[in-house]
Prior knowledge:
The structure is a homodimer. By secondary structure, chain A is α+β, with helices and mostly antiparallel strands.
Amino acid sequence: MTLGWEDIRADVLRRIRSREWPPGGLIPGEETLAVEFGVARATVNRALTALAEAGVIERKKRAGTRVAELPVRRARLEIPVIRLDVLGRGLAYDFKLLADRMAPAPVPVTARLGLPEATPMRYLETLHLAGGRPFVHEVRWLNPAALPTPTPDFATTSANEWLVTHVSLVSGDIAFLAEAASPREAEVLGVAPGAALLIAERTTHGTLGPITFVRLAHAPGHRVAMTF
Amino acid sequence: MTLGWEDIRADVLRRIRSREWPPGGLIPGEETLAVEFGVARATVNRALTALAEAGVIERKKRAGTRVAELPVRRARLEIPVIRLDVLGRGLAYDFKLLADRMAPAPVPVTARLGLPEATPMRYLETLHLAGGRPFVHEVRWLNPAALPTPTPDFATTSANEWLVTHVSLVSGDIAFLAEAASPREAEVLGVAPGAALLIAERTTHGTLGPITFVRLAHAPGHRVAMTF
DNA sequence: ACAGGCATTATGTCTAGACATATTAGCCAA
DNA sequence: TTGGCTAATATGTCTAGACATAATGCCTGT
Lengths: 228, 228
């Protein structure tokens, strides 16, 4: 019965939960634990590294390892490709490209991307359909300067899917908020104006600079679910 | 100039982005890469393990490592403790306990937690305040059977903070959605009935069974932000 | 043609030892 | 007291080699 790193992780976690090692307290060093468990230090290191990534402990060289004061609960969201999201619900997917033109980007967009005001950007407006019914209304501003050429015809390939496979996405952020449906959104999604919509706003940056700003307005009833 | 595992990870990622190794394609085995980079196989393994965790590649024993078809973008949400969230915005935090009683839980709650219908649970209703203004309206159902005794006085300690430090939280899920404010929510949050509210619903399970169901109704304008 | 079993192979994990690096505590001098 | 240097120390990473495990695909017998 030899222990693996997952056993070590489980046992350390158990001792933390049981308050044998209280929040904020130091836990024994890797060498000590290695002897205690009868494994190599590298194995203990693997276990503690995993716990640190999970936010349960905090590790610093020389200072040792201590139990996190308020164990931050992290949830992971796998940002779905809308087409696969729809197909995963057992519905037929389709989309309509409502607009595709160059236009000076409005201030909220340029500000978030860190671009000069009124930078000319490519404006894409798309309605995603699930089973023939409106699913998500997407408004996207693309920075042509940060894209490899040539860009494809977004009437056949969705911009999102082309981006994830062709552009080096380095970092970004996503925010969820609730807003009353604007007249335009109400019309396109087929809901009453003022209906509560779940909005996702996403900005993405790549190696060549800011890439895109997307605003997704979801049809009523949509839930974004994450597990932890 | 000896290479570390992060260098290997970066170079492998570069080759994937450049389509030298296309989506769905097999990449060379660890042994091969180790020779090519002039490092030990364990170092290559460390790099590839990290890329697999990030969703860029998929690894299977015997079958080898292949580039993910659609690189899933994962965002991490650090679920905030409301008090710290408020303080982090530079506002004074306070809360009012609006209700604390035992009651048979409604069906949507018991169903989500996997408990029998109308299980008696502890019902807590809390209004969180930021700078004196309503911030979040919290409705919580607690399963007393899954809690260590004694439970503290939730009028002084927030249930959320007591739970994260005293209960073995094993797993859970969180969902975001948008809903029109109910009359009760409108009254408590001081907004117009029907206003669009961002709702977070969370269920948590522990070693002793289902623990809690929480519904958070955020004041208008609230954003839940995540980075990736 | 087909099912079952087995050898092959790539990844997963572990060991023991080594060196690298960050950080702290203590010491000494201004 | 304060500032800065230094030595000690815990974690971070790497190596070379070994065995474990899970799939694959071939091989064989029916």
